[in-house]
Amino acid sequence: HFLAKLPDDGDAIITDTKKVINTLNSLCIEMDQRYDLLKNAQVRNLKEYNAKFINRRLNPEEGHRFLPYIVLIVDEFADLMMTAGKEVETPIARLAQLARAVGIHLVIATQRPSVNIITGTIKANFPARLAFRVLSKVDSRTILDTGGADQLIGRGDMLLATGSDLIRIQCAFVDTPEVEQISDYIGAQRGYPSAFMLPEYVDENGDGSGSVDFDPKDRDQLFEEAARLIVMHQQGSTSLIQRKLKLGYNRAGRIIDQLEAAGIVGPFEGSKAREVLYPDEYSLEQFLETLRKDN
To answer: How confident is the model at residue 181 (pLDDT cuts 50, 70, 90)?
Structure first.
């Protein structure tokens, strides 16, 4: 894979702020799921996990899968903070704090290194920082926690801070034809026909309830079987549907979202399993019969 995107999204390169928020929250879900997989595999990091998976010591029927590295690149963070603010800051801080061990990394760039853009929460969680020439010592301190970037000469002259040391580096100028050549080189490599699918994220602050948006005509063929499985085990878990029905993660995720929209399971609660809203199979069958009649 070379790109990753949300299910049902047309483009992997995002310009819509709302989609950016959904993508960040989707990456947080992916991070939590990866930590659960690492815990079940009894390993400490992504490298150990993938080595164990390649050596066939992990069972795919239990939800295990090969985990690729994911790099999120934000081209202009200032615009994002101005339009979304706290909605962006919280998931980025979570990813910066926890995601390194599970192979999710962030690269954030901005032309406005002010304290209301690069907040203390965000800055504290980025161990490596690069600064090109800035206008004032205050801006240099915002990025590097020290002066120096205000004395650079420009044209790719920059400082790299990795902890207590500052390293001066010359960045090469890359013109459009060179970028196109690199893209062609990457495009000629063998890869997957589609982008890597991130977990679906449903905005809890969206208008209306889930049941209003639920269309019985669009439900998955295994919807009823999954509903019976969830109620029988009293566990609203995507991984349970994956294991028992032998489905991929994305399809199982869509089914669990349909079950939530239909009112069979409760909303997403982080790493906890969703609440099952039907106590027994009899009451579920009555509800499914009502759905069939409405359809």
So the answer is: very high
Distance CA 14, CA 7 (A): 13
As a whole number of angstroms, the distance between CA 191 and CA 170 comes to 33
Q: Rounded to the nearest 10 degrees, how much is the dihedral formed by the CA atoms of 36, 32, 34, 192? A: 140
Residue where the block lists tokens 């690199």: 182
Element (H, E) at 184: helix 176-187
In whole angstroms, give the CA distance from residue 150 to residue 265. Answer: 56
What's the token pair of residue 63?
Answer: 């939800």
**Phi/psi at 158 (5° precision):** -150, 165
- Bridge pairing between strands 70-74 and 104-108: parallel
The two beta strands, 157-162 and 4-5, are unpaired
Is residue 247 a contact partner of residue 222, using CB atoms and an 8 Å limit?
yes
pLDDT tens track for 240-294: 888 888 877 778 888 988 999 889 998 877 656 788 999 899 889 988 888 887 7
What's the pLDDT band for 209 if we cut at 50, 70, 90? very low
- Long-range contacts of 96-99, Cβ-Cβ distance < 8 Å, separation of 24 or more: 96/122, 96/125, 96/126, 97/125, 98/31, 98/35, 99/27, 99/31
Q: Which domains does the chain have, with CATH numbers?
A: 4-126+175-197 (3.40.50.300), 132-173 (no CATH), 222-290 (1.10.10.10)
Distance of CA 138 to the CA centre of its chain: 33
DSSP for 117-163 reads TS-HHHHHT-SEEEE---SSHHHHHHHHSSS-GGG--STTEEEEEET
Q: Is 41's pLDDT higher than 90?
A: yes
